[in-house]
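During the second half of the funding period, the structural biology subgroup turned its attention to how the target accommodates small molecules. The most pressing case was zinc ion, which had performed well in the primary screen but for which no bound structure existed. We therefore specified the complex as follows and requested a full 3D prediction, including the ligand pose.
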Amino acid sequence: MKRAFDDPKASGSGPSKPTKKLRQSQSKSNNKASIASSETPWPDHFTSLFKVFKAINTVLAFVSSRKQIATTFPVIRASVEGLLKHPLEISRVAELKALLPDLIKFTYIDKNELLINEKILNRSTRRDNSPEFSLPASSYDDADGHVLILEFVDHLKGKKTRNSGFQYTAPPTLTPAAMKKLVEKRNQQFEQAVNELLLATPETENAIDLIQEASREHIPVSPNCPPKKEDKTFPSPDNRLPMDDIIEEVKEQEWYIDQIVHRRTFDAKNGQIAQLDPSLSEAISEALKSSREITTFYTHQVAAIQAIHREKHVIVSTSTASGKSIIYQVPILQFLERDSSAKAMLVYPTKALAQDQKAALEQLIGACAGLSHIKVATYDGDTPQELRADIRSNCSVIFTNFDMIHASILPNEHVWRTFLKNLKLLAVDELHCYSGLFGSHVSYITRRLRRACTAIGNRRLRFISCTATISNPRQHMQTIFGLEPSEIEVVSEDGAPSGRKDFLVWNPPLVLPEDPRSSRVSSLSEATQLMRFLMKRGVRVILFCKIRKICELAMKTIITELGNEGRHDILERVKPYRGGYSREDRRRIEHEAFSGNLLGIIATNALELGVDIGILDAVIMLGFPMSIASFRQQAGRAGRRAQDSLAVLVADPFPIDTYYVDNPTELFEQVPHHLIVDLDNKMTLESHLQCAAHEMPISLEDKAYFGPLMAEICESRLKRYADGWYHTHPKFLPFPSRFISIRGAQEETYTVIKMSKSGQGEFIIEEIEISRAMFEIYEGGVFMHQGLTYVVKEVNHDRNFAKVFQAEVNYITSPRDFTDVDAKQTLRIRDFTASRAFYGKIDLYVKVFGFFKIRSWPTYSLSSILLTFLICFCRNKAIIDSVDLDTPPWECETTGFWIDVPKALLALMYTKGINPAEAIHSAQHALLNQFALSEDVKTECKAPEKEYRVTESSRKRPARLIFYDAIGKGGGVSAKAFDIVHELLQKASAAIDRCECERGCTNCTQSTMCREANEVGSKLGASIVLKGLLGHELDPDAIPLQEQTVSLPQTIVEASAVRRANDVRIENVTQNAST
Ligand SMILES: [Zn+2]
Ligand SMILES: [Zn+2]
């Protein structure tokens, strides 16, 4: 059939280049209209391409009937994807362009050409609510004012358009009937072009390959890409402009729309210098000078070093980069100088940090006359067994961690005896890292260490710690090391010089500036835009993201945007950094950062305390970090001595961020929460007593270390020998330390394996904890790693791995899950007359039943989507596909407590128009906000996607406040909250009454830990629930009727009773006795 009609080979017209061939086919269309109804069957590829074409055709027809809508590619793409229900790849459009090069215009044009449309757009009074028809800022919109457009150029009556190049022509105005005709005509043109292509394709070639090859030439390139050579430079970070000038420059940008809602400047401060008395030895002074160029000391360094000299324990609470390492290093050198058998241990929260510090100390010791023989070593879980004995006997200083002290050094005290006997100094950096349950474990480990040292005659062990600025440094030091307040010297006067520092609170602008109800531009695109702007000016930036996925999305955005701008020079100096990356990857990135080679780092708070990433000039925080303390810690990462720096908080669209946008001074004035370490947890104490007794038997005098609860536990849980000493209970032998996991239970992990395209070679790119894996790896899902997208091909739940392949996709995926927290068995009951609280076993049930494909670029509030998952996307119609999955549920058991909301209270809420799901969710957070150890307790968060669904769901949740011990944290903490549940309810209720906020804030009903970003909430509802549970009088007439815009189906049902274990006593709260 083909041959019979027109054999291009035979006629000699067969082009060698596909592009030419296609052009030729196209040009034939005018005189060979009759072949439109070809009998050649179409390959599926063209059938599906036709669908894409028809969708674009429809959208463009619609758009051209509304003159106010610009046919920019992002606008067209959104609508086309809405019709197609799957993503529209640029390459597909390029294929169409290759097929119909004269009809389709797909190119960058000068933005000014669009101005006419924009003006009309701004004038129009009646706005279409659909965000599809706004003009989104995007990666198809370059810095130099070009936008990517997609439109049809019809050659009416055979007239050739003169319109080549980048000129934009307004689409013709047509009647609906004429438009319909035009649409049909274009569809015919497509069919004809395909038929011709198929006919023209030689048998030796494949039409699909041809079109795809040809399409590559039609992928649009911004006229500024690659930019002129001279643009491709940026100032060296050492020669950048002052930050003040850069901020002024930001304000001159066209994308600057008053985003800076608050600015606070802290002036530069000169360093305060003091003299050491007694002064240092010649050798140490020389070593500091030659290896570090240090000849003078700041006041805080002097205060700390002298306090150690006076045999005090020291805590230094000053800013980041105030020269804290000198405070550990100088006393170590002094000890070694006085006594070459002296030993020291240094503990850092991360291995990377320990490595950096070890190198620095080795260098210093090496430069110190008379000490160059001294050996320094790392002693951690990675230290090979065969090296350990040598380290014990020959090294003077070891870099280690509490895990090793707990599980390796103390249990083997007999081989460490010489070391411990000569141990002069234990330095613990970043002491604020040790709080909550982990802090309790560490506190007992230091007590065990002190006890062991004392027993072998070492009573002069000193402790020295540095910490970020915290509200209770003395008390924290006292708790962690078990010291008397009078033995501790607190150094908090910071003598280090600091550069001028600017803080900005950045609120993304409204999508529709004239409509205050419209949503805000994505915080993620604002943050990455600002980051690019700063890097181009030679500013070294770190962008902090709250969760891993945002970190990856930000990296992907930066890659795309810098790529589009042709700024590969900057791109190659930006790296993401977060938990989950392989060890090698992390070390490599740390190395690059430390060597000063990086210009930008996108990190989760894994970097907040950990690695010293060298010099940074600016910090951008994408969303308010978990707490005021984190905010200050992150902000403190930028800046060094003489140079000015910048910290920017880019607000997410969440209530907490909004609160700080409205009350920015609180960011600087609010007192951070006290660090809490709980030493009254009998379970934790017992486990360490079992260890301590194995290290050496316990006598009642050890109460000095372990506190008043010790005696009772020893008596009931340890084994008492005839001589009166307590020994480890035999069931924990021979290794009691193995019964404790000080960082919580190690979770099972899934391995993510990258498959190569060729099918040869696979390698591991990540290990993911099971509780996270459920939401991150599912078949068909998009997994992000170092800013690249991978599609999950296979998940093996028996062998815990997932295989992924790299694929450039323009969507991300968001899992759809039910996470049910169900009370399973009651073990304790506390009765407080008006209601009861129950403690017991709780089942967690996570079922990922599908996922949404979500268009990933850019206008929409990506971060809000990811955190609140779906609601924003539903609103913005950015969901392009919904996929069902059949994955096995993940179930696990934990402990926790719950309080049922009585029927009458539920009924009252319904009559007052209060949504019980909102009320219960807010009441849960209000209660947890009053509990000091809330970081280890979780609650069932209510998701907007489920609670605000207009269709009835079969999934109903009981009217119940429920709390449980976080997985992988060791547990036992919710029991402590349960012990004081009545008090927590009272405090929560009082906090709400006291708080002047309107709709709830972090002081009353909201939580930075909320999985669903506090979107479902009601301050009034929480107050009613709490008062009702406390038995307070509620006057229905005094409760204002809440107006609801839509009536939603009920998602909350009355809670039913939970099975009780045998002999559950009822603890009566008011009488404080059991009945
Ligand atoms: Zn409040
Ligand atoms: Zn929540």
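Two results from this model are relevant to the next phase. The chain has six domains: 42-115+145-152+172-223, 273-491, 501-669, 682-739, 749-817+850-884, 890-1068. The pocket of zinc ion (ligand 2) is lined by residues 921, 925, 941, 1007, 1010-1012 (CB under 6 Å).
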